[in-house]
Specification:
86% of the residues lie in helices and 0% in strands. By secondary structure, it is mainly α. The protein has a domain of 145 residues. The chain is globular. The protein starts with a helix and ends with a helix. The relative contact order is 0.09.
Length: 352
């Protein structure tokens, strides 16, 4: 007798959730700058929280004071490393900037010479301005990064979000857990703890990997006598954070610069990258990524493409850790529920 009203109520609930989901997607799209700043801030807070916990538990340092001390230490360390790297790369960067117009012109000439064997497209290729094309591509790739005051204020706000999230991490986690029904709270808390642990492990592993592969690549290029070897090593380290796509971008950029400056060095450049990538794939990554959530290649690439089109280059950088968190949610909530329901479903089939 109460079946029909209950069905109507369930339909209303489903429609309400669907409307809320659509509204949430619209808000995420139109407020994507706020989303990216918030995600960066929350991620920074998750990484910062363990240090505050140790200072508070072992030295009785208040969490607010501990956040200031850790932040000052990070600024000093990162500032020192950045200054040292800039001093080492300053000469190569200045030389590369001074030679950039000549290198672009040489690439234009090389492209035109290569296309002389294809008369049917020679006229089209010769009309391409390589310099303008490269600039256009760079601007599009960096479309998600705002310049000037907006970028600085965004990162400052993300830092503030991260600091306050780290200071009151337990309170925020408790409030989030209480937002769920009582029967789901233990599982939700376990999911949050596992996601935070996974994010910290991922960041530590990526940091180790980028330092090692950047240093090994720089040393290999230096041994091979390649120009701008230190700059290329830094590029390899930074873009190495992007799975699969990052190394392709770096090899493409380095190959074009080498081809324009000294074509005889190109085989050595490719050989160095081949060796370092084999070393990374077979030695470094299996060691530093051991025990972490594995991300399937095709979904990860699609997710990177989606976030890249939505948030620009920063979206590509945050895609792997964000997908790892989503994968944990998928395993903890969806797969467990499906697997737990299988015996019930089989019993129901057997009784019919």
């Amino acid at each position: 007798m109460n079946v029909e009203p209950r069905k109507v109520l369930n339909n209303i609930v489903v429609v309400t959730y669907a409307i809320l989901f659509v509204v949430l997607l619209a808000l995420l799209y139109f407020a994507r700058d706020v989303v990216i700043i918030s995600l960066i801030g929350i991620g920074f807070g998750v990484l910062l929280a363990p240090a505050l916990d140790k200072l508070h538990s072992r030295l009785r340092v208040p969490r607010a004071l501990g956040a200031c001390l850790v932040l000052l230490g990070l600024i000093a360390i990162l500032g020192g490393i950045g200054y040292a790297m800039f001093e080492l790369a300053a000469e190569q960067i200045a030389s590369l900037q001074a030679r950039a117009p000549a290198l672009l012109a040489r690439l234009q000439t090389l492209a035109e010479k290569q296309m002389q064997n294809y008369p049917w497209i020679e006229s089209e290729i010769s009309s391409i301005n390589v310099g303008a094309t490269v600039q256009t591509v760079v601007y599009r790739v960096l479309g998600g990064i705002q310049s000037g005051t907006a970028a600085i204020s965004g990162f400052v706000f993300a830092g503030l979000v991260g600091i306050y999230a780290a200071i009151r991490s337990q309170a925020y986690k408790g409030s989030l857990v209480r937002a769920f029904p009582p029967r789901m709270r233990p599982k939700t808390e376990a999911f949050l703890n596992r996601s935070a642990t996974m994010l910290r492990q991922w960041f530590r592993a990526q940091l180790i990997d980028m330092v090692i592969i950047g240093a090994v690549t720089a040393v290999g290029l230096w041994i091979a006598g390649v120009d701008y070897w230190f700059v290329f090593g830094i590029l390899t380290a930074v873009f190495g954070i992007i799975p699969y796509v990052g190394i392709i971008l770096v090899v493409g950029i380095v190959s074009l610069i080498t081809l324009a400056s000294d074509p005889s060095q190109l085989p050595w450049v490719l050989l160095v990258f081949l060796i370092t990538q084999q070393l990374e794939g077979n030695v470094i990554l299996p060691l530093v990524m051991r025990g972490q959530v594995e991300l399937p290649e095709v979904p990860l690439l699609i997710f990177m493409l989606f976030l890249g089109s939505w948030l620009g280059l920063i979206g590509v950088f945050i895609a792997p850790p964000l997908m790892a968190v989503l994968r944990v949610a998928y395993e903890d909530f969806y797969l467990d529920k499906i697997e737990a329901g299988e015996p019930v479903a089989r019993a129901a089939l057997l009784t019919t």
